[in-house]
Amino acid sequence: MKERYLIKPKGEVRLAEFAPDDCGGMNKKDARKILKADKKKLRDLQAKLYAGQKHALLIVLQAMDTGGKDGTIKHVMSGINPQGCQITNFKVPTPEEMAHDYLWRVHKAVPEKGKIGIFNRSHYEDVLVVRVHNLVPQNVWSQRYDQINEFEHLLSENGVYILKFFLYISKEEQKRRLQARIDEPYKQWKFSRGDLKERAFWDHYMEAYEAALNRCSTPWAPWYLVPADHKWYRNLVVARIIAQTMEGMGLHYPAPEPDLDKVVIED
Length: 267
Ligand code: AMP
Ligand code: MG
What we know:
By secondary structure, the chain is α/β, with parallel strands linked by helices. It is built from twelve helices and five strands. It has a single domain, classed as P-loop containing nucleotide triphosphate hydrolases (Rossmann fold), CATH 3.40.50.300.
């Protein structure tokens, strides 16, 4: 799965050639079993990551509105120990954040060693929404791809593993999900007219996503393009890739104190 959905470094992915409703020939029932097993793996691996305090894992989630960032966090991470996990939502920058460079708030939110950090949106907004709406001039945002690669390289050289997921939904699926936010009372709080405004820029966003995926998928911080029209498949792909990555991190519990078998605990 890692290979299948990995964006190759300096890739030339065209989103239009990729099916957001792909489900890898799998059915929902089998997927549920695999997801369950992967979630158990994640729990065990996270316990070792936490105990070892040697590495951190940063998971970046990006998607169009309704793309499933919140749902992915809920379904994939629900088994793990909350103590070893931190989630950061990146919103429109505050005045204080705006007064700094765009990576300032991001660097502060990078997980410490032993932890898994999840970015619900990220520094990629600074080459997505910012690019689409020209919130800064082109000559400023166009330098950011290289800057981001270097920033992520610095993190990776300092013990942070990075995985980036673009949850890719179709425009039709977004329409269905937005409609559900209008129709279903328990989802209405999520509906924002602003999302309709952004939807009108769909093609511009796809262009901006293509640039981010192709220019910023690196050996040290790969992008994965996740077909996300089917929520169950999206969850499976993300969980699989995180589990496979953590398995490759060589995690183990630290060695215990010597001579534990000679320890006697007095009554
Ligand atoms: P939500 O994730 O639905 O709560 O919305 C957060 C909003 O903040 C989205 O519309 C993002 O595009 C926006 N946002 C996040 N980061 C930035 C940024 N660096 N500059 C401008 N808007 C941003
Ligand atoms: Mg929203």
